[in-house]
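Entry 12.
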Amino acid sequence: MNQDFLSPVKEAALSHLLLSSPYCLGNTIRIHTSEEGFPELNDVKLAIFGVEEDRNSENNFGCGDNLYFIRRKFYELFPGEWQGEIADLGNVLKGNTVADTYFAVSEIIKDLLKQNIIPIILGGGQDITYVNYRAYDSLEQTINITAVDSRFDLGSLEDELTSQSYLSKIIMQKPNNLFNYSNVGYQTYFNSQGEIELLDSLFFDTCRLGKAKELEIIEPAFRNADLVSIDIGAVRQSEAPANNNASPNGFYGEEICAIARYAGISDKVSSFGIYEYNSKYDNNHQTASLIAQMIWYFIEGVNFRVKDYPFSGKENYQKFTVLLEDDDPLVFYKSNKTGRWWMEINILSDNKYKRHALIPCTYKDYTEATKQIIPERWFKAMQKMM
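Predicted 3D structure (tokens):
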């Protein structure tokens, strides 16, 4: 890994550790410091790094500053019964140009993915999601993105890349390795009807805030994701004020922590980012505390992964075949370990979408199929493969 891209964690985040418990996270994880240097990455399972880039963040300049507030709150927490090491690699400073920052972030993520280390990215603007997506190009596979956001951040292809236009770049620019995009928690009044109809025509998954609060409904969106991006503005302003685009409506703190755990527990999620934290709007470091707890829940989820994706061995699953009147039968699998459900998509063995042949779903999808109602998730996946 090119360590020159990363600056050490600020002393302001470390100074209080001498008075902290030896068992807290700040005294048990590997930290990039000026005194100790860059940490060894052997046996590291998760690596945190910050991005101090705000120049393409819409109406939220200053995000990415003072990330040490989040670290101080995170370091104070105590780990669970976790396996594998955690490292804090420090921050990517602003480059001479935004493109320089993007290059550094992309190279870091590529290196971590190659080492099977899950990056936890602290932004910075949510435009970093595009950079994260591009880091997967070297894997030469289609990927799924799940974004927790009140807005789609679609913009138009003519717009410059910003925190509110990155999605159009992901959809349109080549190489196009996106298979599915899911938005969790959008608020209709922040998105035009044209944008809503466009995402629907692309057979992407969207879930309004009111429906997303029924958390079990959105769990499959995270189980199916490779990359998860959270705009802290998706949390209501009273819970997380540190965002100039915050809204009175949004997720509660316990809901966004449950969502972070869903992302962690997914066998597929290999990168996780939280963006748009702006310390100058924070109240008593409340948002910093919430983000620290979100990171804690994500790590907790990773440590509870059970590898129950059915391709790992179908003998541990119950198979259910639903006969449809005018179509091929639908095949469902239920994990004996967790009770989670999948639907099977029939595709050719040499199809580039082979890794999407099993679509995470819910028990409700199965019961609807038994009533001759084709699940929306199955229909959309089939349309994208045609």
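Annotation: The mean pLDDT is 94. The longest helix spans residues 286-303.
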